[in-house]
Amino acid sequence: MVRPRNVNRTKSEMEIPDWEQEEFQSRTQIKKAAQAVTDLGEQISQMTESEIKKMNLPKAFTDAVLMLKTMDRGPALKRQRLFIGKMLRQDEDLIVEIKEKLAEIEIRRKQQNAHFHKLEMWRDRMLESGDDAISEFMQLFPHADRQQLRQWVRNAVKEAETQKPPKSARELFKYLRALEW
Length: 181
What we know:
This protein is mainly alpha-helical.
């Protein structure tokens, strides 16, 4: 005997996955939510292999993402993306964990970018102002080598005047980056 759909079924038989328990107005919203989860997996696959491994995600998920990275194109690539999305939809905790780790990575990137902008600002100030900027920098970082800084600044200004590649400016930036902040 075959039962008609949704007739006389208990609540446990009609259980809805966690990711679908949100209130959706239409099938389109359900599809968009599923696509967002799949896109999260795609975002992880865009990371380098070492970054993926540093996230310490479950082995099965990590292996699936690394396999996706090795694929170039074709229907297998689409199936692997959908498989990763399915894995994520089945584990709500994994989605939360991934979002937290991606947020941490983004914060670190922003901090690193801010640090590099600060270094670039100091380099540019030294190239424009010369000894005044170097003296101000030396007050903040007394362990820096004043003579070496002056030499790089002089050479960078000469290179700019003669339209040569900015070798000394790059060396100055490398030195600033190597200093303890």
